[in-house]
Amino acid sequence: MADTTITSTAVKSVTTRSIHAGTYAITVSHTLATTPSASQMFYMIPLQSGVRVLDGWVKSTGLTSFSMDIMVGVLGDKSYFMAGVESSEDHALRFHRNLGHVVTLTDSDSFPLTKPLAVTIKAAASGTIGATPAITVMAMLQYD
Question: DSSP secondary-structure letter at 2?
Answer without folding.
Answer: P
